[in-house]
Design goal:
47% helix, 5-stranded mixed β-sheet, alpha+beta, flat, 172 residues
Length: 172
Amino acid sequence: MNPTDLFITGAIVGILVFWQCYKWWRAMRLKRKVVRARRGERRALDLLEANGYEILEVQKRVPVCTKLDGKECKTYIAADALVRKKGLVYVAEIKTGTEATKVTHAPTRRQLLEYFCVFQPHGILLVDMEQEKIHTVEFRIDRTVTRLPNWCLIILCLLIGAFCGWYLRGGL
């Protein structure tokens, strides 16, 4: 075997070893993340109960049918927990990371809005297991966009048209 063949064989073996190590590292990282999330979820349920919430369901899944170009696609929306306090039902979302516990974090906000729309609960609870706090999240969607009434727009268009006509006739 000449040095070039040895180099190529060594490079291939090195790449395969690196790839296997990388896959193992990613699997271990994912496993640690899942274990941490499950542990956080158990602690969060205890925290909710200690604060007077009754656990109704854990990992509540609701089927959602979406149509794309007329073709149906059935998916599920799963909430970490449905809880009740003083007769009011809440969706509890449990977060164990530092970024994910912020409502300014876009994926978290989208997820909470999704729960708000699908489950239509009295409220949303964001359970921050880093600080062991329960936050109440409220959404107010202002559907009234401040705009001029249609008649004002018509008058405005007429005035602009009249001004343009006057100007083109040599008004200035």
